[in-house]
Specification:
The protein is mainly beta and 857 residues long. It is built from four helices and 56 strands. Strands 8-16-10-14-17-19-25-22-23 form a nine-stranded mixed beta sheet, with no helix packed on it. A nine-stranded mixed beta sheet has the order 35-43-37-41-44-46-52-49-50, with no helix packed on it. The longest helix has 31 residues. The N terminus and C terminus are likely disordered.
Length: 857
């Protein structure tokens, strides 16, 4: 029974041992050349976990393993969490006995050993009469009490090896005032990094220091402003050995006062000499004190403190001291109070522009590098040794519009509120932050005049310029108000910040006028819209937002350019920078203001024309893509030119009319001149009962009664027989100018017979044949009617019956002069008084020729 009951217990113990042996941890370690890697078990740890080296029968396991060869070694732990049991130490030896200069001490890469507590140690050695000098990078080291831990879990310890034994110089953390430590002969620097903490390397330099009698020498640079720094003597826990010297060198900022205070100390029991406490001030003044004396206070300048221990009695506790050095600013500060409780949304910021200066600023008795007085608060400010030219005062006013119905922003004038006059620094910048509701647009304009955008070709040099940006920080541009400005309004679809920057004024608070007027408008599609009215005297420059840098991706800008009547706009692209886009493109479009026709546009892969001319107001729109490389930036300018085409047309029309009139006048003059040209052979004619005249005479001596202006080639029947027509028709003499076209005309009346007796001329018609003219050379003093603009004289029939003095006997004596019989013509000679000799024309002639006359004898 007993054997059967022990068997399961034995089997269980065997399985448990196998399970424990299976819980092991294996790592590979490759030491650097000159480096010693040691795994050692922590104190008071269980003995059931060992570190093993090797494999098979040759494997050895112990509580400590040291690796010195620079080769990869497999290390096994027979427990699953070896980091809880073992500590990893990595040691390097630096021997400067034969000389070394500024050796950079680096930390080996131990990222694979983060599960262990790591100890990095460096053993340092120089000649026995010299010191090992350690220089730590800024901000230096800070000394702490023994067994105290550093906040970042990186703790440094410095040891020195003397004949009397090892001495702990101190324990240190980073971010302190100690910049250099010098130890005599031999020393060791160790850095302990806690388990699970990433190593934060902080290299330091090793060099050979000067010869000295001191065991340790510490250099500390006290910080600027108010501070309190603690220091401890070596071996602070057990005390300093007999006859040891320690020296601290303190560097104090100018205009600062330092005070030494002994906090805690243990006085030694001296058998020879006495404990020496000696101060050497910056002016080489030497002060000697005891432990119970008041130490130097409110001293300016650098100083050093030397402690020399006495030859103390054996078996007594050594000397230990804990002291601090406090630093305060000297001088009297300037005090003022800022009250912002009565100004909504206003905050102030005061910045020291020279970080190397000795200015000390306080707000409510707390030292501040930069002072920020929040909106709606009250603060007491203090300034000590702060030159006015090194301070910058800026103000910020928040103007929020929660909703469109309750928003009081529209119509707001942006001016600078009144500030406290006791502030020691002038106002150098002021920013308005405008927050608007969604689907609304901020409209910016001047109360009077227009804005100008500052570009390299025409920068703003006015007293104050305005930097306009969107709420995301993207810059829109810098603007100012000058005489020849052209920007009437800027519309921005976003929250806006506007910063007033002085150019020539020293204090912005002295400007009491409004810088801008803010109104709210409906939402726009573009990010920014400019309304431009160019001047005819100078060009107007149009720069994309954030010029000369590129527009932000996927943003748009539009200029509405108003072109006055009788002007044309010359749009010139002076500077164009195009990006590489994918997949969308940039676009530059031009569209007339009152037209929806085809738009001229260009992309980033097309050449933008140098100049484009617009005859009317137009839109200029530009949109950016998502650039893969490069930036989209365009600078253009608009120049107005006087439109002269209407005046040229009028002038040309007037000149053309004058030319036509001149041509007509020349032609008429030529005709008149030809008609008035005198004949080569003048002749006179016999005019019965008339007046004799010369044909070449310019004056035609006829009256209307005896000239031929009433002789007609044809007579309209209504003129002759109008009185026989319907009585309802108006009489011929009442035509009111309908038939006569407004001119005086004669009525045909029947011939009633001769009124007097005139002898009948018996000359034959043959005497006046046209052949006579040919015999005389064919010269005629009258122009052919076809060569003039005047109508031809009426052609008279060749036969004698065509004369008005001819009467056919067959005609009845009635008003209609109808024929009473048929047969041959039976002529009746009426009279010779009113008749004239009618020339006979050739039968083949189509026109009537003037007869040639001879002078009557």
């Amino acid at each position: 029974m007993m054997g059967s009951s022990l068997a399961p217990v034995i089997i269980g113990l065997i399985l448990l041992q196998i399970h424990k042996n299976s819980e092991c941890h294996t790592i590979e370690v490759t030491p650097d050349p000159g480096t010693i890697v040691t795994f050692s078990k922590k104190a008071a740890q269980a003995a059931d976990c060992s570190v093993c080296n090797g494999e098979g029968p040759s494997q050895t396991c112990s509580s400590e393993l040291t690796l010195t060869e620079p080769q990869t070694t497999t290390v096994n732990f027979n427990c699953s969490q070896p980091g809880d049991v073992f500590t990893l130490e990595i040691n390097q030896e630096i021997d400067c006995s034969l000389g070394c200069d500024n050796i950079d001490v680096t930390h080996p890469d131990t990222t694979r050993f983060i599960e262990f507590t790591r100890m990095f140690t460096w053993d340092l050695k120089v000649q026995s009469t010299k010191m090992v000098q350690l220089d730590f990078p800024a901000p230096g080291m800070r000394q702490i009490k023994p067994l105290e831990l550093c906040p970042n879990k990186h703790t440094y310890t410095l040891l020195t090896y003397q004949r009397s034994g090892p001495t702990t110089i101190g324990t240190f953390c980073r971010n302190g005032t100690i910049s250099r430590i010098k130890v005599l002969y031999k020393g060791r620097v160790s850095l302990e990094v806690a388990k699970g903490t990433d190593l934060n390397p902080s290299d330091f330099k090793v060099s050979i220091g000067p010869e000295t009698k001191a065991l340790v020498e510490v250099d500390a640079k006290l910080p600027r402003g108010q501070s309190l720094t603690y220091f401890f003597t070596p071996n602070y826990a057990i005390g300093l050995f007999s006859d040891e010297r320690i020296k601290w060198n303190f560097a104090v900022e100018p205009m600062h006062n330092s005070t030494i205070l002994f906090q805690d100390y243990t006085a030694p029991e001296c058998q020879k000499k006495a404990l020496l406490i000696e101060y050497t001030l910056g002016d080489k003044t030497v002060l000697t004190k005891t432990l119970k004396d008041d130490q130097p206070a409110n001293k300016q300048g650098d100083f050093s403190l030397t402690l020399a221990n006495c030859d103390q009695k054996k078996g007594t506790k050594g000397f230990s001291l804990n002291f601090n050095v406090s630093v305060i600013r000297g001088g009297s500060p300037y005090l003022c109070t800022v009250d912002l409780q009565n100004e909504d949304g206003l905050s102030l910021q005061i910045e020291n522009k020279n970080p190397k200066s000795y200015c000390e600023m306080k707000m409510n008795s707390v030292v501040q590098e930069n002072i920020v007085v929040p909106a709606g608060t009250k603060a007491d400010l203090s300034f000590l040794d702060c030159p006015v030219e090194e301070l910058q005062l800026t103000g910020t006013k928040m103007i929020e519009c929660l909703s469109g119905s309750t928003c009081a922003m529209s119509g707001t004038a942006l001016n600078i509120p009144t500030l406290d006059t006791t502030l020691p620094v002038p106002l150098q910048r002021f920013t308005w932050v405008l927050r608007v509701p969604d689907h609304r647009t901020v409209d910016l304009s001047l109360p009077q005049g227009n804005l100008h955008q500052s570009v390299l070709e025409k920068e703003c040099y006015e007293r104050v310029s305005l930097l306009v940006s969107e709420s995301d920080g993207s810059n829109i541009g810098q603007f100012c108000a000058i005489a020849d400005s052209a920007i009437q309004k800027i519309q921005i679809k976003a929250n806006v910040s506007i910063t007033a920057v002085p150019k020539s004024t020293k204090d912005l608070s002295q400007d009491k006028g409004a810088f801008l007027k803010v109104t709210l408008g409906p939402e726009i599609l573009e990010n920014v819209v400019y309304t431009i009215s160019p001047l005819d005297s100078k060009p107007t420059y149009l720069a994309t937002p954030n010029w000369p840098d590129g527009m932000k991706p996927s943003s748009t800008v539009t200029w509405i350019v108003n072109v006055p009547q009788e002007y044309r706009a010359e749009l010139q692209f002076t500077n164009v920078s195009m990006p590489k886009c994918d997949p969308r493109h940039t676009a530059v479009e031009i569209r007339p203001l009152n037209s929806n026709g085809q738009l001229p546009s260009w992309r980033e892969d097309q050449i933008v024309p140098n100049m484009y001319i617009q005859q009317q107001s137009f839109y200029l729109n530009m949109s950016n893509c998502e650039p893969k490389s490069g930036s989209f930036a365009v600078l253009s300018k608009v120049t107005l030119q006087k439109e002269t085409k209407h005046f040229i047309g009028i002038i040309l029309a007037v000149v053309g009319g004058l030319l036509i009139l001149l041509i007509i006048a020349l032609i008429v003059g030529c005709v008149i001149r030809k008609k008035k040209k005198p004949k080569a052979n003048r002749s006179s004619i016999f005019m019965p009962r008339g007046n004799a005249f010369l044909p070449g005479n310019a004056n035609f001596p006829k009256t209307r009664a005896d000239n031929e202006s009433h002789v007609y080639a044809s007579i309209e029947e209504p003129m002759m027989y109008g009185h026989l027509l319907d009585k309802d028709q108006p009489a011929a003499n009442d035509d009111n100018g309908a038939w006569s076209n407004g001119h005086q005309v004669d009525m045909y009346r029947p011939f009633m017979g001769p009124t007097d007796l005139i002898p009948v001329i018996t000359e034959s018609l043959g005497d006046y044949a046209l052949d006579r003219g040919k015999e005389r050379g064919g010269d005629s003093s009258f122009l052919n009617p076809s060569n003039t603009f005047m109508p031809g004289r009426p052609c008279m029939p060749q036969l004698s019956q065509s004369s008005l003095s001819f009467e056919d006997r067959r005609m009845m004596t009635n008003e209609l002069n109808t024929f009473k019989s048929f047969g041959d013509i039976n002529p009746i000679r009426l009279s010779t008084e009113g008749s004239r000799l009618q020339p006979q024309l050739d039968s083949d002639s189509d026109s009537c020729a003037e007869p040639e006359y001879e002078v009557a004898n």
